[in-house]
## 1
Amino acid sequence: MSNRPSITERSAQAGPGPASRTLAAFIFASRWLQAPLYLGLIIAQAVYVVLFFVELWHLVENVVATGHISETDVMLSVLALIDIVMIANLLIMVIIGGYETFVSKIRVQGHHDEPEWLSHVNTNLLKVKLAVSIISISSIHLLKTFIEVGRMDDGVVRNADGSVLYSWDGVLWEVVIHLAFIVSAIALAWIDRMSQHHATGRSGGLSVGKIEAGLREDPVRSSAPDDFVTVRLPAGAPLPAGAEIVSNDR
């Protein structure tokens, strides 16, 4: 009986052919098509920078031209500036997080300006952070609406030209939409937590606490020289009870 591998076994051992590898490389390289999209968002952020200083100039101009300005007008102008900043922060999160997740690693580890969330960014975390940012922006708009509602007359707020700026129905729908954003963010955070919980359950959830509990429950096994478990711990982490350093060459 021949020990030569069959044709099927040889094909399986050979791996994918040149055409398959070329197609896979081409599909993987297609992720760079998203790079111009993030460059476009950078241009949009530059537009928001210009808009910020235009709004700031209008605020200063109103104060200098009129000599006096009400607290409500100042608050509305400041809220408009904060709104622009929040949207700019959202753009930064989408640009950096999206590029890091879907295109290529930015490789800024060890940089003193590295964002804290960038080291563990993933799709679920990015969705949650985007949802929280959208809630923050919605809160700013809702606060501006509440300030304007203070001068509501007959259920509406009118502009200087007489057009309707706010109404009771409009304010109610703004509150409902804001609550919908909050519910969506909670749902995303819950889904992210559940996915992490299931991933930990499938992997067995090995931790220092479980290792320590196992060593305490089976002291005979822990003292046996030929039967041990090698575990790598973070630098500076305390050793579990009954554990000892076997090798620190690596």
## 2
Amino acid sequence: MDTFDIKTFDKHKDHLSRYNYIRKDSTVVEQRTWQFGYEEVIMPKNNLIHIFNKYNEDGKLMLTGDFFPNDFEKGIWKEYDEQGNLIKETNYDTPYKFTWEEVLEWIKERNINMESDYFEIYRNAGEEEGEKPIWAITWEKEDKSSLRVAILDGSTGKVQKEIDQEYPLDE
């Protein structure tokens, strides 16, 4: 069972109870406390998907899963009890027959700049009656005149809608 290294964390944490470091393979690890223990985000180099781990106050793993930052959970997330027994698995990819990898291929085929501050990938599993799963990709148009939004069918990848959108207003 995966455990959190409390001793190392306590030795290196800053005044906000955070500890960030880079592994030899260039993976970035961000650790912090939360109300009932510790959290960790692992960001492998050259991978858009990050790993989230949540530990209890004793450093025992409670929850783990992959995610696309600020937008959605991916794949199978696992929850554990205090003894380390797997108690629940949730597969967030189940409704999506058009996969994450196929979405990335769709983006690459269109030469969409994923480094832009305006780039987003969002998905919705269609929890409401009659709704279907969708992927929504937002990017800055090459001429920087506006943003472009494409809504893809989550099952087929077919473009359902593609529209231009104004830049968000600065707050």
## 3
Amino acid sequence: MYDVIVIGAGPAGASAALFTAKAGKSTLVIDSDQSITKRAWVENHYGVEAISGPELVETGKRQAAKFGAELVQAKATRLTAGDGFIRVETEGGDYEAQHVILATGLMAELAEASGVRTKPGTEPRIKTVVDAAPDGRTSIGSVWAAGTAAGVSVHTIITAGDGAKVAINVISELNGERYVDHDIQKPGT
């Protein structure tokens, strides 16, 4: 059983996994390799001059893995709430976690198949999104949503920030107190 399973490894998912893994939470990322960011060219992402979408996605995965996140390529097909856990069914097997973060981008099928409440999207060409509270909580306890899947703008910098925000809220929930992650420079750097 994992502390957190993140579904999707685009900017929102990888950012969420980076934060949860860095906080010492056992983290699994399940990715179907269908991120729309893989078709992007990005010149408006803070801290990056210009980067291809595939390179940005791979960088995010590497950063999350650096802190211990495990990555599995699979398509998640259903979420089922258990007693103190969420089961994630995939085409290749099942996984369990205390919390799940949906960062599925344009795709709302998993949420709909799992009974997570959805609503019409407001972004161009985004028909359906998860009905998530501002902190990322959904209609199913311990299931959260981040990024475009949660109705946030499709811009990579915004979805990455939303993934981080939701991860901080999940970590805070797991810790029982507000979590803050601030690194400081070491002398001489």
## 4
Amino acid sequence: MIECPFCIAEIDDSAVACRHCGRDLTGQIYLLRKVALLQTEVAELTAQFTQTRIVSSSASSVAQPEPARSSGAMVGRDIGALVGLALCPATLLIVAHYLLALHFELPPIALLLATLLIPLPFGYLAITGTTRGLIFWGTLFLITSLVSVLIMGVTTYWMVRLSSDYVPEMEMMLSPLPQTSAEWLQDFRFAFSIFFSFVTGMLLGVLYINARQSNHSKIAVLRTDVALLRRGLVRIVSAQTMERISKYATAISTIASTAGAIYFGISKL
């Protein structure tokens, strides 16, 4: 059946004139037949699409447990990354402080070099080996740095308390935690030195991904983090300046973080 283009009545597809309005359809009959054929095909495709959606929705409802397992595996990987990339460097920093500063009593420069070198590989691995981005690991490494420095102070306190040279009169001069604003500032500077070493490692990871793995799955995460950080920096640096330095932003940031780690570390000497 086809529709008359003049009165929109249904007529037989072999008719050459409309039996309702009497109009001649000789010039239009070919197009009318093609339109009717296309309408039939569209209806069939719509029915197939609807059936496919019903089947796919049924399959997804049956496979509900799979996302739970993948989510559990992701949580497990995140916990493993947190333990390996946050607790391990903190432990190594504390052990280095004990051995270099307290046990062997080496010059402070030895501890400074250790605190500059230990965080680097962990910052690098955090970016190249996990799914998390700069903001997540930056926050975690800042906490790690602060906690490590505080534990170093507690370790120093108890080493002095347990040493053979300890006398009760020394209690007035000892404390496991900083007591004055100057002491707190000194510890914060030391923590920032460690933190900037972590940042340098992370930025080296970003440089590696950008240079060697342009199709790396983490590119989207890093771009999102960089966009957020850049948005915050625009308040300090003009948008035009940020646009000019954006091409070399990661390299410049790597140099700046290294300089910051050295500066804050030297200030503790």
